[in-house]
Amino acid sequence: MSLWFSALTVMAMDIRHILYGPALRYRIKQKLSEKKTVIWAFGLTDEVFAAATAKLIKNQRSWSENWMVAIATCSWLSWVLGTVAGAILGNGYLSSYPAIEAAMIFMLPALFLSFLLASFKRQNTYCVTAALLGALMGITFFSIPIAILAGIMSGCLAALLQTKNA
User: Fold this and answer.
1) Distance between CA 132 and CA 15 in Å, rounded?
2) DSSP symbol at 119
């Protein structure tokens, strides 16, 4: 795979971070504090976005910026502390503990699978199905990078079409 294609794939996968803020803002009915928004926007990761979206849906678009600042800060701190722990312990330290090493290898795919399964609510079924079909077609006929791009594009297109029809 070429360097340019790799770069385009990474950019396509990471473009979602640009869309998280506007997607949340669309669902929030309260006025936002500029200072707090800067803090929680800095910590707006996949997990924080998923938690915030679930909270907004559960609370009928009710929003707590203090909660959002707290969850974004906790997420950021856990990332930093995890990075420090990985730098200290990651250089073969876990080879003495194979069960922990196996669990660590399993956790990230399990996390993303849980996000995927949580998204299978009625309003998201078309988008998730389109993304999975696009990815399946891409990997069947081309390669993994094409599958990633096809899945992203198919899911986005389905979301646009679903929004237009709603």
Assistant:
1) 18
2) T
Do residues 147 and 138 lie in contact, with contact meaning Cβ atoms separated by under 8 Å?
yes
Please tell me whether residue 93 adopts helix, strand or coil conformation. helix
3-state secondary structure of 16: helix
Nearest alpha-carbon partner for 135 in 18, 9, 8: 9
Residues 3-62: pLDDT tens digits? 777 777 777 777 777 778 777 777 777 777 888 888 888 888 888 888 888 877 777 766
Q: Which residue has the tokens 């594009």?
A: 153
What SS3 class is residue 94?
A: helix
pTM over 0.85: no
Q: How confident is the model at residue 117 (pLDDT cuts 50, 70, 90)?
A: low
Assigned token pair, 123: 């309003």
What is d(CA 65, CA 43) in angstroms, rounded to the nearest whole number?
13
3-state SS, 28-73, equals: CCCCCCHHHHHHHHHCCCHHHHHHHHHHHHHCCCCCCHHHHHHHHH
User: Among all chains, which residue has been given the structure tokens 């669309």?
Assistant: 26
**Runs of H (alpha helix) within 59-143:** 65-89, 98-118, 125-141
